[in-house]
Amino acid sequence: MSLFSGLQMVNIICSVVKIKLVALWLHASGIGLFGIYQSVIDTVSTLSDVGLRQSAVRDVAMNQSSQRRLAEVAIVVRKWSTFAGLLGATVIVGASPLLSQWFFHSWWAVWGFVMLGIAMFLNSLTSGEQALLQGSGKLRALARGNLWGTVSGFIASVPLFYFLGPQSVALSIVAYSIAMYASMRRARLRTVAPPAAIGLRQIWMKGKGFARLGLYMAIAAFVTSLAHTIFTALLNATDGINNLGYVQAGDTIIVRYLGLIFTAIGMEFYPRLAAARHKRAMQTYVNHEIVLLMILLTPLLILFIMARGSMLKLLYTNDFMVIIPFITWGALASIPKAISWCMAFTIICRGDGKIYVLTETLDAIISVPLCYLAFKYHGFAGLGIAYIIWYLLYALLTGTVFYCRYGLRLNRHVTRTSILATICCLTAITVKETLSPLLSTCVMLAIAACFIPPLRRLMRR
C-alpha cells in the first residue's frame, strides 16, 4: 500500500507540474493539444490492446508456481503485447492524415500523430512488462520501474516544452514512453528458458484466454466511460459549464485522490486472489481485504472530512467551497465501494468476462439517472448521497454474483467493521457540522487514533 500510494502521489505531482509548465510556456493551446493527443492514444489503446494489461496478470499469477510455465506465459504475454502495440501504431499512423484534418482542419499535425504511433507501440510493450511483474509478485521491481520511468520522462519533457514550443507536445509524449519502456525493460521479469521454442500457434492458443477476458474488460471500461460521458453531457446541457466544473472537481477528489488507496492495494490483491486455487482461500482473501480497507479508510475519511475546506482552497479556489456537501457525502461512498470493489475482483479472477460486463453495464445504467436526478433536485448534497446509493446498489450486484454464482460468503467481522466504519464517519460529519473548529478537530483526531491499534495488529498478523 505504501509502495504504490507513494508512487501514485509522485505521478500526480509530476502531472500537475507538467501541466503548469505547459500552461506557462505553451498556453491554453498546449493544454488542448495534450488533451487531443492523449485522448487519441487512450481510445486506440482501448481498441488495440483489449485490456491485456489487466487480464494478463491473472494468467501470470496462476502460473507463477512453476518456472517453466511462467517462462512460457512471459513469452506469450510479450508476443501479444508486441502485436497489440504494432496494431495500435498502425492504426494511428494510417489515420494520421484524417486525424489531423478532423481535429485541426489542416495537415500540420500529421507528423505529430505519426509520432504518437511510436508512443503507442512502446506503451504496449511497457504494459506487458508491468503485467508480468505484477502477476509474479515482483512489486518492488514494478514500483521502482514505474518511479524511474515517471521521473525520467518528466525530466526529459521539460526542456522540450521550453525550447520547441507546440511541436514539443508529441515529442514529450514519445520521450515519456521511451523513458517508461527503458525503465521497465531494466526491471523486467527474468525467467528460465522454456524447454522448447513456442510457435505462433501455441502463442495464439495460450494467449487467447487472457485476450478474451481482456476484451470483456475493455468493453466494461468503455461502457463505464460512456456512462460518464452521458452524465457530463446532460449536466452541461441543463446546468451549465460552471456546475459541470464543480462536479468534475468533486468527482476528481472522491474518485481519483481517495481512490489511490484502492489502486495501491489492488496491485497486490489482484494477483494474490487470481493465484488462489480453492474457494476457501479466495473467500479468506476477500474478507481480509475488506477488513483491511475498512481499518485504513476510516481514519483517512475522518481526516479528509476534518481538512476538506483547507484542501479545496489548496487545490482550487474559494469558489469551489460550494462542493463541500458533495465531497463530504461522496467520500462516505468509499465504504460500500470497498466492499463491492473486492467482490468484483473475484469475477475477473474467475475469468467470468460476460458476468463482469453485465454487472458493469447494469452499474452504468443505474448511475446516470440516479446521479443526474439527485443533482437536479437536491444539488451537491443530493449528488453525494446518490454516490452512496450508487455504490450500495453496486455492492448488491457484485454480492449477488459473489454469493449465488460462486458460493462465497462475507464473514461477520466484515459486517461489524463496515458498520463501525460507517458510524465513525457519520459521527465525524456530525461533529464537524455542530461543534467549534477546535473541539471538532480534537474529537475527530481521537476517533481516527482509535484505528491505529487494530491496524497494527492486522499488519502484524
Question: How would you explain this protein's 3D organization?
Answer:
The chain is mainly alpha-helical and about 450 residues long. It contains 17 helices and no strands. Helix 3 (about 50-65) runs antiparallel to helix 4 (about 65-105), helix 9 packs parallel to helix 13 (about 335-350) and helix 10 (about 280-305) runs antiparallel to helix 16 (about 435-450). The chain is globular, with a radius of gyration of 23 Å. The two termini are about 15 Å apart. The model has no long low-confidence stretch (mean pLDDT about 85).
Helices and strands, with pairings:
Blueprint: H1 2-25, H2 27-48, H3 52-63, H4 67-104, H5 110-135, H6 139-164, H7 168-186, H8 200-257, H9 260-275, H10 279-306, H11 308-315, H12 324-332, H13 334-349, H14 353-405, H15 412-434, H16 437-449, H17 452-460
Helix pairs in contact: 1-2, 1-6, 1-9, 2-4, 2-5, 3-4, 3-5, 3-8, 3-9, 4-5, 4-8, 5-7, 6-7, 8-12, 8-14, 9-10, 9-13, 10-13, 10-15, 10-16, 12-14, 13-14, 15-16
Give the overall pLDDT as a whole number: 84
The helical percent reads: over 70%
What's the overall geometry?
globular
Query: In terms of structural class, how would the helical and strand content be classed?
Result: mainly alpha
Number of helices: 17
Instruction: Give the C-alpha Rg.
Output: 23 Å
- The overall strand count is 0
The biggest beta sheet is recorded as: none
Strand content: under 5%
Distance between the termini: 16 Å
Q: Low-confidence parts lasting 5 or more residues at pLDDT below 50?
A: none
How do the SSEs run, as a string of H and E? Answer: HHHHHHHHHHHHHHHHH
